[in-house]
Amino acid sequence: MKALLLKGGRVLDPSNDLDSPADVLIERGLVARVGPDIAAKGAEVFDCSGLLVTPGLLDTKVHLNEPGREDRETIATGTRAAALGGYTAVACRSTQEMVMDNQTVVQFIRRRAARDGVVRVFPIGAVTRGMSGKELAELGELAVAGALAVSDDDHPVADAAVMRRALVYSRMFELPVLSFPLDPELAADGVMHEGRTSTELGLPGIPSIAEEVIAAREVIFADSLGCHVHLSPVSSADTVDIIRYARERGVSLSAEVTPHNLLLTDAACEGYDTNAKVSPPLRTDADRRALVGAVADGTVSVIASDHSPCTVAEKQTEFARAADGIAGLETAFAALYTGLVLTGELPLERLVRAMTAAPAKVLGLALGSLTPGYPADVTVWDLAGEWTVDVEAFASKGRNNPFHGKRLKGRPAAVLVGGRFVLRNGEVAV
Amino acid sequence: MLKSKDLLGIRELDIPEIELILDQTAKLEEVSTRAVKKLPALRGKIVANLFYTPSTRTRISFERACKALSADLINIGQLPSALGETLTDTALTLQAMGVDIIVVRHHLAGAPVQLARNIEASVINAGDGAHEHPTQALVDAYTIRRTLGRIEGLKVALLGDIRHASAAKSDLYCLVKLGAQVAVGAPSTLIPEGLSEFGCQVFHTVEEAVDAADVIITTRVSLDYGNDKLLPSLREYSRFYSLNTERLALAKPDVMILHSGAINRGVEITATVAERARPHLQRQIAAGVTLRMAVLYMLAMGKGVA
C-alpha cells in the first residue's frame, strides 16, 4: 500500500490538543506523522488546502437494522450513509426482531460488516435477553464474540436489581454498560416532551423526570458499585445537573446526546410532524441550551447520531402510532456545524472531540485520534461548501430527517478508513 | 370566508373567523323554525361521516346539518382500519368517489390534521383525542352569545376532564379569544402541563372556579382514558368536584350551565343540577345542528362550489 500524504490542511485533533496547519502522513494504514511541511517521497499526495482534517467520526448509537429489519436499513446502506456523514466507525444496536443477546447475531453482524461495510462496524450486545429488562443476556459470551459494550437500546432496564447485576457482571468482562435513562411507568404512553406544546397538540407527554429518576439511580449505582455507567442518551437540563453533580463527586459516569436534541425543540412536533418524533423526545429550548452547554464543558462528552431509519409507512401515520427516530448519519456533523459552531454556541474543537476522541474512550477503542501508530481513520472536511439536505438523495434507506430542505455547511471531501479512501471528492469510493 | 379549506381546531382560527361562523349560524337559525327545515345550499355535494370512535350526538348533529342543507351524506359504519388501511388511504378512496367534505372523529390527536394535508377534500375535526373539537366549542360560544348577548367579559368556569376532553381545550381557546375570563376547576392530575399559559386561571377546587361565574361548562368525567390511574375513584371525584347545589350557589344567580358529552349524573354534575340545566342543554344541542350547518356551508363556499 502506497504511502499517502494529506497536504496543506488545517489539522484538528482534540485528543492531541492540536489545531494548526499541518500535513498528515499515512503509511501501511496507520498514522505515521503529523506536522508541518512533511516531505514524503513517493507518497500519493492529497491536497487538503482550504480543508479541515480531523480523526474520522465515531458513533456510539446507530441502527443498521441488519439482521431483522432490512426494509429499514442494511449494513451496506447504513455504512455508506456513515461515510457520507464523515464517520469511519459506527457502533450498532440491536434490532428488536433480532436481538444481539447471543453470540450468533454478533458474529453474523461482524461477518456481514466485513463483506458489506464501508466503515468499521462494532456490534453492541444486549444487556438482557430479548431486551426484555428481565434476565441477563450471556454477557461473557457476547464479549468474547466481539460485542464492544452492552445496551438494551431504547428499552430501559427498569428493574433496578437487573441493572445492578448487569453492572457488576459485565465489569468482569470489561464490557461497558450503556443505560437508556427512562422510567417506563413515568413515560407511560407518552409520545413527545410533556409541556405546553404536548398540551396544545393533545398528545400524551413524556415528562423530563422520567429520565431524571433513572439518571439519578445510575449515579448511585456507579458510585456505590464502583462501576462505570454511560447514559445513552440524555435529553433534559436537570439530567445535565445530575451528571455534573456526579462527576464533581468523582463518580465514573459519562453520557451522550443526539444532534437533534442539541438543535431542535418540541416545537418541531407542531403540525404533528412525525419526523420530530424521537426517543428521548425533543424538549424545551432551556433543555437544548443546557445540553449544548454540557457538551461545551464536557459534562456530556459524546454526541451520538442515534441514526434510526424508518420506513415511509412507519412515519406516515398518526403521530402516536409513528415510529421513533431520525435517519441522521448523513446530516449529523453538518447540522451541528451549521447550527451550533457557525452560530457561536459551540466551539468547533468541542464538537469534533465529542464525535471522535470521546466516543472512542467510552467504547475503549484505540481510534478517534491522529496519534502516530493509530489506524489512519481520517475525515477531510469542506467546511465552506454549502449544500441542501435532500432525503431522496440519502444513501440510507431512511427518509425520516427533519433537516430535509435545509441549507447546511460542512461536508466530507474525503474519508479514510485504515488509510484507504472510502469516500473521495464527496463520493463513496468502495 | 374561512382561510383554510378545513376546520381542524380553534387554535388556528382568528377572532374575525370565529365571529363569522357565529354570525352565519345566527342567519341560519331561522331555518330550523320553518315548517320545511331544509335549504338547497349544498345540493349535489357529498359529505362523509368517518367516525373512528363512536359519538352518537356529534354524528347525528352533523347528519342533521347535512340533510338540512340538502347534501348527500355517507355514514361509514364499518371502518376499513380493521383491514389495516390507513386513514389517508380511506380518505383518498372517499375523495375519488367524489366526497367534498369529510367529518372525522378519531381517538388519536392530530389524525384529522395529518389527513387534511394529504387530501384536497375539506376535513372537519369532530373530536380528535385530547386535541380539539372545534364545532363543539363554537356551539358553546354560540349558545352563550345567543342567551347572554355577549361573551367578552363573562366569567366562565370549565369543570371536569380538562385533560382528555377534546371539547374542553377548544372551549378554552375559543372563549379566551372572544374575551371571556376563563377559570378551570379540576384535580391536579386532570390538569395537563402548561395549561396556565393558555390565558386562563387554574384552580383545584370547584368553589374557586365557579365563584361569581356567568357560565359553567362541565365535561364528562369517566374512568376511561387512564383516569382510573389519575383519580382514586369516581366517588372521591364526585365528593370534591361534582357540581352540586351548594357549589352552584357560589355562581351568579342566573348562571348558565352547559355540558359536553353524555352526562354522568352524580359524577361531574348532580342529577338536581343537571335537571336545572336542562333548558340550556336543549338549546345547546339545537344550536349544534345550526352551527354545523354554518360550518359545512362556509367550507363548501370557501372552495367555490356552493
From TrEMBL, chain B:
Pfam name, any one: OTCace_N
Keywords: Pyrimidine biosynthesis, Transferase
Domain Aspartate/ornithine carbamoyltransferase Asp/Orn-binding: 152-299
EC top class, as a word: transferase
Catalysed reaction, written as an equation: carbamoyl phosphate + L-aspartate = N-carbamoyl-L-aspartate + phosphate + H(+)
Pathway: Pyrimidine metabolism; UMP biosynthesis via de novo pathway; (S)-dihydroorotate from bicarbonate: step 2/3
Domain annotation Aspartate/ornithine carbamoyltransferase carbamoyl-P binding: ranges: 5-145
Organism: Candidatus Coatesbacteria bacterium RBG_13_66_14
Gene Ontology BP term (one): 'de novo' UMP biosynthetic process
Enzyme Commission identifier(s): 2.1.3.2
Gene Ontology cellular component annotations, sorted alphabetically: cytosol
Iron is among the record's keywords: no
Name this protein carries in UniProt: Aspartate carbamoyltransferase
InterPro entries in alphabetical order: Asp/Orn_carbamoyltranf_P-bd (IPR006132), Asp/Orn_carbamoylTrfase (IPR006130), Asp/Orn_carbamoylTrfase_sf (IPR036901), Asp_carbamoyltransf (IPR002082), Asp_carbamoyltransf_Asp/Orn-bd (IPR006131)
Function: Catalyzes the condensation of carbamoyl phosphate and aspartate to form carbamoyl aspartate and inorganic phosphate, the committed step in the de novo pyrimidine nucleotide biosynthesis pathway.
Keyword Transferase: yes
